[in-house]
Write a structure and sequence with these properties.
Its cofactor is Cu cation. It comes from Miscanthus lutarioriparius. By secondary structure, the chain is mostly beta strands. It folds into three domains: about 140 residues, Immunoglobulin-like, CATH 2.60.40.420; about 180 residues, Sandwich (Immunoglobulin-like), CATH 2.60.40; about 200 residues, Cupredoxins -  blue copper proteins (Immunoglobulin-like), CATH 2.60.40. The protein has five helices and 32 strands. α3 links the parallel β22 and β23.
Length: about 575
């Protein structure tokens, strides 16, 4: 590496501890943290266009929410726009607080215009970088922000490290959010786009020789992203707020919904005469559809560098090609849980229930060809499904229906454990590519150990699908290319130190196996975090029943929970 320095192996474990954020004095003990979100419209100018967008408290990005492990968090939301809205606290376990999870019509009815709702939950056993975002329609395009969980001061084993960020990686559009026109750093597209200059460029200042923690979040609607800093190597220490065995990389891959904490060591003597370097993001995709194949840059500036660096001539990192699946697979395979005495990996060694989900696109009958709404092949409409079931969004809250035991007409507990018709998933697609529809869930008894193999399919083109599970972290025990082979692939599982995440990408033309323990009662959606695929039905839900003990049961809904 030129211009930066790698951490020695002896320093890597120490670096993990340095990940733990700057401790804020006002957060000395567990307590209740309160925030107010006023959802309002605000005018912004980006990419030569001025328009009105939904915001929280008139700001884009939204406010940074900071709590400490063990805190109770209360966020009072007032909806002052003309759209329904909900908020999801992405990656928070929500132990027995499913009423605050946020996905519309899953754990709550939306907050209607003029109404309010208080999200009220406790942070249990988690620390690191998470985030929050709207979970209704496409509103998370502009309604999102960071959620930082600090460790308890008493558990800090080593001195703290300064942090920079959070760095929210997003997308900007001129007209609509379904396809981006630019990628952004904390809402700023940088100098590579028209009508975008120094004032629209995010800058990160560092001091020579110091190591910093960067908190990264991919908040883009539909884009997996490569991330790199010119002439600097990064050390990955946390993923989705779970510690990992530290490893170095020149380029990161971050899927929508994922977070990553990395260490960056500023060079003692920067190689660039201007002491400024490009931070770059660009897409990874294998889609056959339209996508934004541009590169956005921010600036890493050393103290003492000129304030007005020549932005377009900065040293830039060499990013992989947009369809370099091999680079993505190699990066993904490097993640391992810390699996230490203080942070053990409680991997389920045995499994009570196994599932095989074929994940991918499909076709649907199109009722109207007006205004180009039928964009699928042969006059059909694009759809997406798991096990050929395209999720139908209910018209009432599934959690409310579950709590009241009023399932009729709302959901059916018959989501298939395997595809109804097996086929060559990554080979020639079947002749019939039409999906079925339903609000179908999988019921689970409390404390059931679950294994799910998520298999990509080549129907209408193989591509990566970032799957997010609400209410749980899971262990990624295996992954590979081609069709999953239960006879051979299971024997290769990592049951010692698999990475623990809440969002994982199903590899293009491949599979991934996850395990979790169903120890959190409620209704929990699992869905693709590409919003276009979610809108096509790429989702399902787990219905986890109460356990026998009082602390294993879903409590009653709060009095202000929205009604449908």
């Amino acid at each position: 590496m030129a211009g930066g320095r790698r951490l020695s192996p002896a320093c890597l474990f120490l670096a993990v501890a340095l990940v733990v954020v700057v401790a804020l004095p006002e957060l000395a003990a567990a307590r209740t943290r309160r925030y107010t979100f006023n959802v309002t419209m605000a005018t912004v100018t980006r990419l030569c266009v001025t328009k009105s967008i939904p915001t929280v408290n008139g700001r884009f990005l939204g406010p940074k929410v900071v709590v400490r492990e063990g805190d109770r968090l209360v966020v009072q939301v007032h909806n002052n726009i003309n759209n329904n809205v909900t908020f999801h606290w992405h990656g928070v376990r929500q132990l027995r607080s499913g009423w605050s999870d946020g996905p519309s019509y899953i754990t709550q009815c939306p907050i209607r215009p003029g109404q309010s709702y208080a999200y009220d939950f406790r942070i249990v056993g988690q620390r690191g970088t998470l985030w929050w975002h709207a979970h209704f329609s496409w509103l998370r395009a502009t309604l999102y922000g960071p959620l930082l969980i600090l460790r308890r001061a008493a558990s800090l084993p080593v001195p703290q490290a300064p942090h920079r960020g959070p760095l929210m990686l997003g997308a900007a559009d001129r007209r609509g959010p379904n396809v981006s026109d630019a990628y952004t750093f904390n809402g700023l597209p940088g100098p590579t786009y028209n009508c975008s200059g120094a004032s629209d460029t995010f800058k990160l200042r560092v001091q020579p020789g110091k190591t910093y923690l960067l908190r990264l979040v991919n908040a883009a609607l539909n884009d997996e992203l490569f991330f790199a800093v010119a002439n600097h190597t990064l050390t990955v220490v946390q993923a989705d707020a779970s510690y990992v065995k530290p490893f170095t990389a020149d380029t990161l891959v971050i899927s929508p919904g994922q977070t990553m904490d990395v260490l960056l060591t500023a060079a003692a003597s920067p190689s660039s005469p201007a002491a400024a370097f490009a931070i770059a993001v660009a897409p990874y995709t294998n889609t056959v559809g339209t996508f934004d194949n541009t590169t956005a840059i921010a600036v890493l500036e050393y103290d003492g560098a000129p304030q007005q660096s020549a932005l377009r001539s900065l040293p830039r990192p060499a990013l992989p090609l947009y369809n370099d699946t091999g680079a993505v697979a190699n990066f993904s395979a490097r993640f391992r849980s810390l699996a230490s005495a203080q942070y053990p990996a409680h991997v389920p060694r045995t499994v009570d229930r196994r599932f095989f989900f074929a994940v991918g696109l499909g076709a649907d009958q199109c009722q109207s060809r007006v205004n180009g709404t039928c964009q699928g092949p042969n006059g059909t409409r694009f759809a997406a499904s798991m096990n050929n079931v395209s999720f139908t969004m209910p018209r009432t809250s599934l959690l409310q229906a579950h709590y009241q035991r009023r399932y009729s007409g709302v959901l059916t507990a018959n989501f298939p454990a395997a595809p109804p018709v097996p086929f060559n998933y990554t080979g020639t697609p079947p002749n019939n590519t039409f999906v079925t529809h339903g609000t179908r869930v999988v019921p689970l008894n409390f404390n059931t150990t679950v294994e799910v193999v998520l298999q990509d399919t080549s129907i209408l083109g193989a591509e990566s699908h970032p799957l997010h599970l609400h209410g749980y972290d899971f262990f990624v025990v295996g992954q590979g290319f081609g069709n999953y082979d239960a006879n051979n692939d299971t024997a290769k599982y990592n049951l010692v130190d698999p990475v623990q995440r809440n969002t994982i990408s199903v590899p293009t033309a491949g599979w991934v196996a996850i395990r979790f323990v169903a120890d959190n009662p409620g209704v929990w959606i699992m869905h693709c975090h590409l919003d276009v695929h979610l809108s096509w039905g790429l989702a399902m839900a787990w219905l986890v029943n109460d356990g026998p003990l009082p602390n294993q049961k879903l409590p009653p809904p709060p009095s202000d929970v929205p009604r449908c």
